[in-house]
């Protein structure tokens, strides 16, 4: 096996695990592998193109003397031409393991795809992962260099579990971040404001709806970076809810229900609904400044974010009927909705009768209820604020 001292090994492992936390660090990890194996290119193919779809592109990160070195990029690749397909997973191989030197030299794949990039010697492994199928890892050298040796293959095989582990962690983090983003968007589409706070009540993060509510200062506001209510009595109750959330969080084996309150608004509008809930964490994740509670805020008079197109499909309504339903869901009377839509009252009444018939309800209040409780708001694209 090639010599790999402790400092090199430590540096390479650090780079691999940094890469699993942030794709921007694959550059360093692959560059270290390139230097270790005296390669001119190191490539990690994250996704192969669909051979049945000419417009489908693969996804890879590669380092070497090339444009976009170290960046995750899309690429076209007719991989049905390569001789390196259908190899046993997690087993390092070279071109010499698959064919004679003469066959490789005359290979159309080498001539058309490799020669132009000064690629001749190839060492490769198809890495199996838990959730992303097989990822392809390739190291190459130019023709005037030594072929990859058995020692090179042994070293690559030795490093393979660490590379695979890094890729698996990256996949898990990507999935977690994607789900978290979807849930966050779903909450936003339901017009629910969310505020993350630490143990001192300092605001760590807020979504766009929370930002709007807090900037208005109507019921809730930010004072010295902390969440506060407009009126002293409400503020004392809010402080109590936050304190209780953290005390329950520290309790052994306790599972406390979220606490709620209404917050009076100086404008006279309907009170804000507030729920405070502690965020579970493991003992290893304790620490000052960590988000430990979330405050949910609902503005009962806020406008519905329902998608007209989705609502139309859900209830079988015409565009005009959908527009009227949205106005009614936003709290307008039939007369006010007719004025907002610039239609006659008789026309609005005719639309309402048709809506009742299609939705199976008999009263306007029922219509508003089923509209607000539907999934229509979840079909809305990202909101621009």
If you had to describe this structure to a student in words, what would you say it looks like?
This protein has 385 residues and is α+β, with helices and mostly antiparallel strands. It has helices at residues 6-21, 26-36, 101-105, 108-114, 150-189, 208-216, 232-250, 308-315, 319-329, 334-341, 345-359, 364-372; strands spanning 41-47, 58-64, 72-75, 93-94, 121-128, 134-141, 192-197, 203-206, 220-223, 226-229, 259-263, 272-278, 293-298. The model has no long low-confidence stretch (mean pLDDT 81). The protein folds into 3 domains: 6-178, 2-Layer Sandwich (Beta-Lactamase); 190-298, PAS domain (Beta-Lactamase); 308-379, Arc Repressor Mutant, subunit A. Helix 8 crosses helix 9, helix 9 packs across helix 10 (334-341) and helix 10 (334-341) packs across helix 11 (345-359). A 6-stranded antiparallel β-sheet has the order 3-2-1-6-5-4. Helices cover 41% and strands 19% of the residues. It comes from Marinobacterium maritimum.
């Amino acid at each position: 096996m090639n010599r790999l001292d402790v400092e090199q090994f430590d540096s390479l492992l650090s780079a691999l695990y940094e890469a699993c936390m942030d794709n921007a660090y694959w550059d360093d990890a692959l560059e270290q592998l390139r230097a270790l194996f005296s390669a001119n290119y190191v490539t990690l193919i994250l996704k192969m193109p669909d051979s049945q779809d000419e417009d489908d592109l693969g996804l890879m990160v590669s380092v070497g003397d090339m444009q976009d070195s170290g960046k995750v990029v899309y690429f076209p690749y007719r991989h049905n031409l390569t001789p390196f397909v259908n190899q046993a997973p997690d087993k390092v191989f070279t071109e010499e393991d698959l064919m004679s030197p003469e066959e490789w030299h005359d290979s159309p794949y080498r001539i058309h795809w490799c020669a132009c990039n000064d690629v001749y010697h190839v060492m490769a492994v198809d890495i199996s992962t838990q959730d992303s199928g097989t990822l392809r890892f390739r190291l190459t050298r130019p023709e005037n260099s030594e072929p990859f040796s058995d020692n090179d293959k042994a070293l690559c095989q030795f490093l393979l579990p660490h590379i695979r582990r890094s890729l698996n962690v990256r996949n898990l983090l990507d999935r977690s971040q994607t789900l978290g983003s979807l849930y966050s968007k779903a909450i936003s589409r339901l017009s629910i404001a969310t505020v993350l706070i630490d143990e001192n009540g300092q605001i760590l993060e807020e979504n766009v709806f929370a930002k709007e509510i807090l900037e208005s200062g109507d019921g809730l506001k930010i004072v010295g970076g902390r969440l506060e209510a407009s009126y002293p009595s409400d503020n004392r109750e809010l402080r109590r809810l936050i304190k209780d959330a953290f005390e329950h969080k520290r309790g052994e084996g306790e599972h406390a229900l979220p606490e709620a309150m209404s917050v009076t608004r100086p404008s006279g509008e309907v009170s804000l609904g507030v729920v405070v809930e502690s965020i579970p964490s493991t003992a290893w994740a304790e620490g000052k400044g960590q988000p430990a509670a979330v405050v949910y805020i609902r503005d009962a008079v806020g406008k519905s974010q329902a998608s007209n197109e989705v609502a139309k499909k859900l209830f079988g309504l015409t565009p005009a009927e959908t527009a009227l339903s949205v106005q009614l869901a936003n709290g307008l009377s039939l007369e006010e909705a007719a004025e907002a839509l610039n239609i006659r009252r008789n026309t609005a009444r005719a639309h309402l009768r048709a809506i009742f018939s299609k939705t199976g309800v008999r009263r306007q209040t029922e219509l508003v209820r089923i509209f607000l409780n539907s999934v229509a708001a979840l079909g809305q694209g990202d909101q621009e604020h």
